[in-house]
């Protein structure tokens, strides 16, 4: 689960999907990583291929 964001652009992207504040070419990968982080309850949950 994501508790806080250190980067305002990532937070905006996570909440609204806006790519302002991040590089648009990274949007698809960031969407996947943020979704995995949001679902994880333990660090071990991030063990993915």
Protein described:
It is a single chain. With 49 residues, the protein is mainly alpha-helical. The protein has one domain (8-46). Helix content is 45%, strand content 0%. The chain contains 2 helices and no strands. The chain has helices at residues 8-16, 27-39. The chain starts with 7 loop residues before the first helix and ends in a 10-residue tail after the last helix. The model has no long low-confidence stretch (mean pLDDT 93).
Mean pLDDT: 93
Helix/strand order? HH
Radius of gyration, whole Å: 11 Å
- How many beta-strand runs? 0
Largest sheet properties: none
Q: Beta-sheet strand percentage? A: under 5%
The end-to-end distance, rounded to whole angstroms, is 19 Å
- Portion in helices: 40-55%
Structural class of the secondary structure composition? Answer: mainly alpha
Q: Please give the count of helices.
A: 2
Low-confidence stretches: none
Number of domains: 1
- The best one-word shape is globular
Summary keywords:
mainly alpha
Give the topology, please:
Blueprint: H1 8-16, H2 27-39
Write a brief caption for the model:
The chain has 49 residues and is mostly helical. It contains 2 helices and no strands.
